[in-house]
Write a sequence for this structure.
């Protein structure tokens, strides 16, 4: 493998592995908070911040663009909360509004910047569908450090996350601040989105958050195992998609990561140990056979016993 990949490609592969793991873990939190659409909304809402940050500094500096994306995504999250709390509009509708408005605004800004001198050479188009191959080593270091921070936050407060997600009243009785946990959750969600949009793209970043967690749900009823499996599926999808993209004709990385993640989902859907279609079919057939045997063994119901 090392002989086939350049040193930079190996670093990119490592970064998408860690990114996939972090995305899978945060995706589990979003899944149990029933906010899967929130990740899609915030990933699209990050695009204007990326373009504005580039327009301000004039160069493609990863830390600056991450800061711009984070500010834009947080603004989108606050607007979703404001729309939901100050009107009769439901949360999913508010998310759809923010997703459309921010992404449309980002595309408009991107078109304007690309028409400026040097703008068409900025590589900002890679943030739409993802282009991990365009990352330099400094970008990879930044992504690795922030993704590792996200993973550390999830593991360090694992018990608190369980209480926050499954028994918030008991958590409040123990003194766990719901506002604090909501803030930390939103912070890590935004963080994993903004560090992943260059590799996966704003359009497909939500898939890397949602699909691994849903796939893991088909294999276990344990929250801990689900988080670990989701991290495994996300990391495997990141590596698989990056390898396919690397060995292809410089194709965007994001679509292949999503395809790899979707393949794992189909396998989980069919063969998952807890909720897979094959397991359900076997259980249903066994149940029908058990019912048939119980009926045939009861007195007075055998053939010819009536009358």
């Amino acid at each position: 493998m090392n002989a086939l990949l350049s040193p930079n490609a190996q670093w990119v592969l490592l970064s998408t592995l860690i990114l996939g793991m972090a995305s899978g873990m945060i995706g589990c939190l979003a899944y149990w908070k029933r906010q899967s659409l929130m990740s899609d909304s915030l990933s699209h809402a990050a695009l204007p911040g990326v373009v504005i940050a580039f327009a301000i500094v004039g160069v493609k500096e990863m830390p600056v663009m991450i800061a711009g994306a984070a500010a834009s995504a947080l603004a989108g999250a606050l607007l979703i909360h404001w729309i939901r709390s100050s009107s009769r509009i439901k949360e999913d509708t508010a998310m759809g509004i923010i997703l459309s408005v921010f992404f449309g605004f980002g595309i408009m800004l991107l078109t304007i910047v690309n028409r400026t001198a040097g703008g068409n050479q900025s590589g900002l188009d890679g943030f739409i569908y993802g282009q991990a191959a365009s990352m330099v080593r400094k970008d990879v270091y930044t992504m690795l450090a922030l993704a590792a921070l996200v993973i550390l936050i999830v593991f360090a407060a694992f018990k608190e996350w369980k209480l926050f997600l499954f028994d918030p009243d008991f958590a409040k009785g123990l003194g766990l601040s719901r506002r604090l946990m909501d803030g930390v959750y939103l912070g890590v969600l935004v963080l994993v989105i903004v560090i992943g949009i260059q590799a996966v793209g704003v359009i497909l970043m939500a898939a890397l958050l949602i699909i691994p967690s849903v796939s893991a749900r088909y294999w276990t009823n344990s929250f801990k195992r689900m988080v670990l499996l989701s991290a495994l599926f996300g990391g495997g999808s990141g590596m698989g998609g990056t390898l396919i993209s690397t060995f292809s004709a410089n194709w965007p990385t994001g679509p292949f990561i999503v395809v790899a993640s979707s393949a794992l989902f189909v396998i989980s859907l069919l063969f998952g140990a807890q909720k897979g279609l094959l397991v359900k079919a076997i259980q249903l057939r066994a149940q029908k056979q058990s019912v048939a045997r119980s009926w045939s063994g009861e007195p007075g119901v055998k053939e010819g016993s009536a009358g």
